[in-house]
Amino acid sequence: MSEKLYLDDLYVGQKFVSGDYALDEAQIIAYAKQFDPQVFHLDPEAAKHTFFQGLAASGWHTASISMRLVTESIPLADGVIGGGMEELAWPQPTRPDDVLHVESEIVEIIPSQSKPNRAMVRVLCHTKNQRGEVLQRFRPKMVSFKKPNI
Fold first, then answer.
1. Distance (Å, rounded) from C-alpha 30 to C-alpha 19?
2. In angstroms, rounded to a whole number, what is the distance separating the alpha carbons of residues 140 and 150?
């Protein structure tokens, strides 16, 4: 979807599906080295003897990929401006060779009481792998603006 969306274009129940993002072992390890250096994210052999029973991407890595996919699939005219996160859960780990995509649905639009040109848009998002398994569930709030009068 290339058309930029304004608040006036959004409605409760509206759905968006992102493109795919292929994740491999090298990406998982590189992210973990920089941001989440734990053995189950860094060492495929040692990870076999942990809670995850194999290499798993950092939940923050999954969240970062999900953010990219959300910004690509929900083309808000003024960008995806975060107004908070109501829920962030990782029901199961993201693994090497998973191909991720995000399915999003607008669940509520809350007009601003003090600024009539904007609203808070609550969205329910699921990051899924190629088998349709939910790897992450999150509920962001995004600021959206009405189309300017030109």
1. 23
2. 30
Whether the full predicted model's pTM is greater than 0.90, yes or no, is yes
For residue 82 the two structure tokens come to: 């975060």
What average pLDDT score do residues 88-94 get? Answer: 98
Q: How confident is the model over 4-35, as pLDDT tens digits? A: 999 999 999 999 999 999 999 999 999 999 99
Task: Decide: 86 and 106 in contact? Cβ < 8 Å.
Answer: no
- Whether the Cβ atoms of residue 121 and residue 106 lie closer than 8 Å to each other: yes
- Per the CB < 8 A criterion, the answer to whether 55 and 101 are in contact is no
46 near 39, Cβ under 8 Å? yes
Residue of 42, 35, 44 whose CA lies nearest to 63: 35
**For helices 59-73 and 25-35, angle between their N-to-C axes, nearest 10 degrees:** 110
Nearest to 87 by CA among 134, 136, 121, 15: 136
Q: What is the pLDDT of residue 2?
A: 56
The Cα–Cα gap between 122 and 108 comes to 5
